[in-house]
Each structure stands twice: as C-alpha cells, then as structure tokens.
Amino acid sequence: MNLVKSERTNAEPMERVALARHDRRPYSLDFIQRIFSDFYELHGDRKYRDDPAIVGGVAKLNGRPVAIIAHQKGRDIGERQKRSFGMPKPDGYRKALRIMKLAEKFNRPILTFIDTPGAYPGIDGEERGQAEAIAVNLREMSRLRVPIIVTITGEGGSGGALAIGVGDVINILENGIYSVISPEGCAAILWKDAAMAPQAAESLRLTANDLLKSKVVDNIISEPAGGAQNDWDKASDLLAKALIDSLQKFESISVEELLVRRFNKFRGMGVFEMNGGS
Q: Which of 9, 31, 55 is nearest to 171 (CA)?
C-alpha cells in the first residue's frame, strides 16, 4: 500500500480541495476503463428510472469477479447536467443497492468509488425519498455478507458519499477530501462569508492525512506528481494495486468475522467527551 506522509500547512487543506475538484482529474469511468476488464454496466433501480450520477455493474479485477458502484461527474456541460454534476438522486442510491444485493447473491466483493459534492438537493429528490434512500443503504451495507472496499477518489461530500461509503476498508487518494459539508457551505453557515472557506477547510479536517489520523480512512493512495490529473494511467496503476492489496486481506476471513469487524470499525469511530453530570 502506498501511504503518503506530508507536513500540513495552513494553505494545504484548500489546495487539496482544489485538486480534488480539478476538472481534468480522472473520474470513476476513467479508472474503471483502465483498471478493470469485462465491465458490464447495469442500469435502473427497478422502481423509477436510471440515475446517471451513479454508475455500476460487474467486472473483473486482476481476473477476479467483482461488483462496482461509483459516482460519475461529467466532462462537459451537457454531460454534467445529465449526471447532475455527480450528485445522485434517490434512484441512484436504489440502483446502487440493487447492484450490492446482486453482488451478495453471487458472492462478489463490492468496490465503491466516491466522488460527489453531495446528494442531489432538488425538490424532486426529496419527493422520492432522498433521506430514506441514503439511510437504507447505510443499514444494508452494514450487513452485506461480502467484502466492501471503498475508495474516495475526489470529493466525498456528506450523505451523498456515505450512501456508498460503508466499507471494510476505506481508501482515499492522496488529494481526495471527505467531509460532512463543503468548506464554502461551512463558511456560509458559520461566518456568512464565502471568503472564510480556507479557514473552514482547515477546521473540517477533511484532507487525507487528517482523515487517516482520525481513523476515518484506513489507507492513503499516492498520486502522480502534481495530482492524478497529470497522469491518469499512473494514477490508475497505483489505485489498482491498492484495490488488489485491500481485497487480499479478506481471503481467509469468515462472513461472521467480516461482519463483526465492520460493526466494530464504525462503532469505534469518533472521540467523545463528557463534562459534568452525575
């Protein structure tokens, strides 16, 4: 596994945010094309429609059958609008769950790739049960009886990311970010001033190094010099190795032990303080 250990500076968090959002950064389909063979995309949630903000299907990783679920942004304005800028609606999360259940049925490990500003915030998403769709995915992922490897490749925004983010191993690319809210959103709420976004990014502890220290993620995957946008092929090679290494950890683990470890992993996250009281 390629672990990155770099010194943090006051400017670093917002710089990482910019790199995570870089418009030439490889998106999920770019990685899928380079890492996997025999990818067959599946469409639709069998209830309402197909949401292009989530792509998924079956493929092979180094000859091993796997299931893939990923956020997908668009390169040009037309594709971005079609894919809602990588912000899924409830239909996308239900499609993701359908693929997860299929993977469980056929005993395929699940690989998810997170790159989203967050869940789609529109009225139509709320009308179709956005919060419920996210909550159901969290519940169901916690008890799926196959290994789940999560990788944050760019932005990991709030519940939009968490809905495919419950995993046995959580990787993050060196310049990825993962947070309950964007720095701009945080600055707007706390200070009513978007210019405070760099301070918000510092306080949110959203960089890969911070997330590793707080045990929110398990591994940091190196990127090519200057960022993944500078060399898609090299970035894909580094990611492929990390995915293969992650899967190998579960070759001799029983389903029962897998579920216990997953529960304990998420139950142990966070730091709590109690002041006063009896």
A: 31
Helix ranges restricted to H, the chain? 12-20, 28-35, 77-82, 90-105, 123-127, 130-141, 158-162, 183-190, 197-204, 208-213, 232-248, 255-267
**Identity of the amino acid at 244:** I
Cross-strand pairs, 169 = 149
| Segments of the chain scoring below 70 in pLDDT | 1-11, 272, 276-278
Contacting residues for 54 by C-beta, under 8 A, at least 6 apart: 69, 70, 71, 72, 88, 92, 93, 95, 96, 164
Residue 18: other Cβ atoms inside 10 A: 13
Nearest to 203 by CA among 6, 17, 28, 19: 17
For 117-130, the pLDDT digits (tens) are 999 999 999 999 99
Q: What is the Cα–Cα distance from 151 to 223, expressed in whole angstroms? A: 13
Q: What is the pTM of this model?
A: 0.92
